[in-house]
Amino acid sequence: SPTYLTLALPETAVCGTIAPFFEYEPERFIVFIKAEGHGEFSMNLGEYVRILVRRGWIMLLLAAITAVGAYLLTRDQTPVYRASQTVLIVPSRSDFGLTEASRLLLNPLVVAMYSEQIAQEIINDLQLDMTAPALKGDVTIAADQLRLTIQIDVNSTDSSLASAVARAWGLKLQDYRNARNATARQEDRVTAEMPDAPQISQI
Question: Cβ(138)–Cβ(182) under 8 Å?
């Protein structure tokens, strides 16, 4: 014969069948839970609460162990910083044609700047002890078509180094545009400007 687990419920319990294999007896406020096996036993809500109270320290201990482990893990990790240099692409006049031409320049500028040649020039300028592919791997360059900007992100465990590299890369972009403007008419020029110093954040 089936075994019944009897749970005492308050009067606010929902009457009727509350789930498959669960039967509710309204006049006694008792739920009978059918189970496989033999014998009959019952447990009220108070006994459940007492068990949770007695075993609650185990959950607290596990939470403490997890917190300590997370702290030790993050403490042993070397912080990584990101320097973000924003370069504004500025057409010499504000008409639609030159503005759209400037917008079309953004992606080619990203390709021109994200090269091992530029990385090597920066290594030489800053006298860095690393290879061009390694430096390039720490750099991300992305264009914003809406704002007409190019953002240069440099990751490093040295925040000062990251800032110096990001600014140097921005200056390379300025030099690149200045060289192209040298052969263009004044009214057709598109310049690159750095409105702010690189912004530093920890990642």
Answer: no
